[in-house]
Design brief:
alpha/beta, eight-stranded parallel β-barrel, globular, 14% strand, two-stranded antiparallel ribbon
């Protein structure tokens, strides 16, 4: 285990395709996510495309550069279909477990820790679509996800670079609003899955591996859950997604600080669970473009926003910037751009 907090980056859009990370892969197809891209291209063209992308988009040199920037960890989204046809419910997707192996080799060579995150919703921002079979009933595929968690923890649990495993990607909890029920997973069903995934990791990776639970958008809804003495090394992830950001407007530095205050409040709620809090995903992107703001002014405001968030995350067990690389070097999202002007000591 690392003695200090983990400060790292996500490798979003590498093992699963994301149109905002690599829009050129989706150009002219009419597809907005990986599933529809397969339909548009056909299985053979899709597999050739994704094979070339995975080989070229992230390489050993990226891990070296990440470490040289002062980061000590990487958060890697691993899709449920990582084992391909040898895993459960793979469908038309192309497996990628060999690239996860490479990520461990590259990380260990430069002293980075790896946090794996089981991605059950590749290519979509709709957290209710975490179903591997297109269903909204989480119970239909819960056992398949536990199987993948078990395999990953067995394969990597003893690796030097393995720090922990986040058991799901951005689930949405079903909520009752007046006479309507929102789409999502019932919280008791999600809790049962968390317990089952925890047991699978402990059986295969021992007690030192950190088990990370996404807060599902309700940071205050996990008070005392799995914080009892019989559970060890369990963290709660309070990621800040693009949809969170789009709900607020930012006309200036004062509003940016209010956004950072929102982050502090959410983390305070999460800590009431009794579990250590981490931030699995955050960015420097401002919610909207101000037509009156100069490019220089926007860059300065993004720097303020990043600085305020880093201060808000002080005391967290870990944070991971979203993301290390985008093909368009997106300001606010690409760590090579957004964090380039920050000294290493400011990121520590």
């Amino acid at each position: 285990m690392a003695e200090r907090a983990l400060h790292g980056v996500n490798l979003t859009g590498w093992l699963t395709l994301e149109p905002w990370v690599t829009p050129e892969l989706f150009a002219d197809s009419g597809a907005l996510d990986e599933a529809s891209l397969i339909t548009a291209l056909g299985r053979n063209r899709y597999r050739a495309l994704v094979k070339k992308h995975r080989k070229e988009f992230i390489e050993a040199a990226d891990f070296t550069r990440i470490a040289s920037r002062g980061f000590n960890a990487v958060r890697l989204a691993v899709p449920w279909y990582a084992y391909g046809s040898k895993g459960p419910e793979c469908g038309p997707y192309a497996g990628c477990i060999d690239y996860v192996d490479l990520a461990f080799d590259w990380a260990e060579e430069v002293g980075l820790k790896l946090v794996l995150m089981l991605d059950a919703s590749p290519g979509t921002e709709k957290a209710s679509h975490v179903a591997i079979d297109g269903s909204l009933d989480f119970r239909e595929y819960k056992d398949a996800l536990v199987e993948v968690v078990s395999r990953l923890s067995r394969r990597y649990g003893m690796r030097d670079g393995f720090y922990g495993l986040e058991v799901l990607s951005s689930p949405a909890v079903q909520r009752h609003q007046w006479l309507q029920v929102t789409e999502g997973v019932q919280q008791h069903t999600l809790r049962n899955y968390y317990r089952d995934a925890y047991q699978a990791i402990r059986r295969n990776a021992g007690d030192d591996a950190v088990v990370i639970l996404p807060d599902a958008g309700i940071p205050g809804g996990w008070r005392h859950f799995m914080a009892q003495s019989r559970y060890q090394n369990v963290w709660l992830d309070c990621s800040f997604t693009r949809s969170d950001m789009s709900k607020r407007s930012v006309p200036g530095p004062a509003a940016v600080r209010r956004l950072a205050d929102d982050a502090r409040k959410r983390l305070l709620q999460a800590r009431k669970s009794g579990l250590p809090a981490m931030v699995g995903s955050w960015s420097g992107a401002l919610p909207y473009a101000d037509s009156l703001m100069t490019p220089e002014g926007r860059i300065a405001l993004e720097r303020v926003f990043i600085s305020e968030q880093i201060a808000a995350f002080k005391g967290c067990s870990a944070w991971f910037f979203e993301t290390w690389k985008t093909s368009g070097r997106l300001s606010g999202w690409d760590a090579r751009v957004s964090l380039a002007t920050f000294e290493r000591r400011m990121l520590d």
